[in-house]
Amino acid sequence: MRTWPVELRHGQVLLRPLRRRDLVAWNDVQLRNREWLRPWEATSPDGGVPPTFAQMVASLRRQAKEGRAMPFVIEVDGRLRGQVTVSSIAWGAFRSGSVGYWVDQAVAGRGIVPCAVALTVDHCLAVGLNRLEVNIRPENGPSLAVARKLGLREEGLRRRLLHIDGDWRDHLSFAVTADEVPDGLHARFHAGGAGPGQEQVATRT
Length: 205
Hints:
Its EC number is 2.3.-.-. The chain has six helices and eight strands, in the order ββαααβββαβαββα. By secondary structure, it is an alpha+beta fold. The radius of gyration is 16 Å and the shape is globular. The chain has one domain (8-191): Gcn5-related N-acetyltransferase (GNAT) (Aminopeptidase, 3-Layer(aba) Sandwich). Residues 197-205 have low confidence and may be disordered. Helix content is 28%, strand content 31%.
């Protein structure tokens, strides 16, 4: 199976690689959701200027080429609505990665992100990763709901894990390993009656 680039689809939800030409649509979603996303935004502890869109895409594409990241755009009915990115991918004996995501508030509550995360996890496991984790601020109720409704295993609190919204923030860590979902996380999610239109969608982790 091809690791990257790939497209993943379920119904109205399409995951595809982030591209330079997404600039206008990406900026539009970000501007409309500035207050919605701000509490969960990664920030620089030294107060540095955030990268431009072009710099972000170039960095993620380089990491993807090296097998260290999978930066997906979430499209819903053909419109860019968010991102789900697998980062910190390690191979060798470790074979793990970390999943982060954000979504347009306009489609919140439709189960888009649970579906996208499940598709992403299944792809990662299929190409040889063994473990995926999601780290979520304890204050981010909708994102916690996604992890729990997907049945991700809670591993505990990680103190001051990431610099978010101007300070070092604690995160709850959730994970899934290949042996826990032999038939796939997406299949387990939908077997429980979940799917787009039924589950709560999270903001950025």
